[in-house]
Amino acid sequence: MKFTAEIDIMPHANLLDPQGKAVSLSMGNLGLSEITNVRIGKHITLVVDADNEESAKAKVEEACEKLLCNQIVESYSFELSV
Fold first, then answer.
1. What is the H or E stretch that residue 76 is in?
2. Phi first, then psi: what are they for 77, rounded to 5°?
3. What is the number of structural domains in the chain?
4. Nearest alpha carbon to residue 9 among 56, 70, 53
5. Structure confidence at residue 27 (pLDDT)
6. Edge-to-edge strands of the sheet including 42-49?
7. pLDDT value of position 25
8. 57 — alpha (psi -120 to 50), left (phi > 0) or beta?
9. Low-confidence ranges of the chain (pLDDT < 50)
10. Of 31, 62, 67, 72, which residue is most buried, by most CB within 10 angstroms?
11. Residue 19 and residue 39: Cα distance in Å, rounded?
12. Which residues contact 68 (CB under 8 A, 6 or more apart)?
């Protein structure tokens, strides 16, 4: 079966997010001062060929932990669909 994984990777909430801070400051310059606390991360979509959903989840977790996410400064979450 082919599963599609939608993965979101974000910096840990207690760490500084320089990109998010820059965008937050720019919002005020654009007249959008009501938008604050911007956090910027990554969204990754991939297809996993697996026998079942449990196996697909395991493969996505392995990919996130070994390559896609730096767990020292980032966390990840994902959803699978068929």
1. strand 74-81
2. -145, 155
3. 1
4. 70
5. 95
6. 42-49, 2-11, 74-81
7. 94
8. alpha
9. none
10. 62
11. 8
12. 7, 9, 42, 44, 76
Tokens 């297809």: give the residue. 47
Domain membership of residue 55 as a residue range: 2-81
Kindly report, residue by residue over 34-47, the tens digit of the pLDDT.
999 999 999 999 99
What is the predicted pLDDT for the residue at 78? 98
Provide CB contacts within 8 A for 43, sequence distance 6+: 6, 7, 8, 9
Distances (CA, A) of 56 to 7, 9, 29, 63, 69: 13, 18, 44, 11, 17
- Which of 51, 50, 54, 78 is closest to 64 using CA atoms? 78
Quick one: pLDDT at residue 64? 98
Q: What is the CATH number of the domain that holds 7?
A: 3.30.1280.10
